[in-house]
Design brief:
This protein is of the alpha+beta class. The protein is built from two helices and five strands, in the order βββββαα. It is about 15% helix and about 25% strand.
């Protein structure tokens, strides 16, 4: 029990500061957590970066990307182990289909070009979904906008 004149904080630590809790920051996926707020993933039902896995779930597609460091130097690069499952959406596709591939990204894990490459992999996988129709912008509309400026 403490007296009215003594502080419950140990000597030498300011009373306004908290001590660190036991939160452990583990895995490579933490370095890619900035993709969670990216507007290009606004259509995703779920995005998570946990330990060494990035998971992005869309209504028609589920993308799982495993991250592992390249052997050798500490920040040599990472390997993306991509697995995609395309969910059946219409009567034409009754079964879920799957695809797997790997990609190597050089440099320190989680830097901007690696986050962009990971996002491109996710978005490309979503665009290849069998029942998904992707509408590309018409070049004429871009010319019209350029002429208006």
């Amino acid at each position: 029990m403490t007296d009215a004149g003594t502080s419950p904080h140990p000597i030498g630590s300011p009373p306004g500061r908290r001590r660190r809790t036991g939160v452990k920051r583990q895995g490579l996926a933490l370095r890619f957590a900035l993709i969670i707020g990216d507007r290009r993933l606004a259509g995703a039902l779920h995005v998570s970066c946990h330990l060494d896995t990035v998971v992005v779930d869309f209504p028609e597609t589920s993308v799982h990307i495993g991250l592992s460091p390249l052997p050798g130097k500490v920040d040599a690069g990472i390997v993306l182990d991509c697995r995609v499952e395309y969910r059946p959406g219409t009567e034409a596709s009754h079964r879920a289909t799957r695809a797997e591939w790997q990609r190597v990204l050089m440099g320190r894990p989680g830097v901007l070009h690696q986050r962009e490459a990971l996002l491109r992999e996710v978005l490309a996988a979503r665009g290849r979904a069998p029942d998904r129709i992707v509408v590309r912008p018409a070049l004429a509309s871009l010319r019209y906008l350029a002429a208006a400026v």
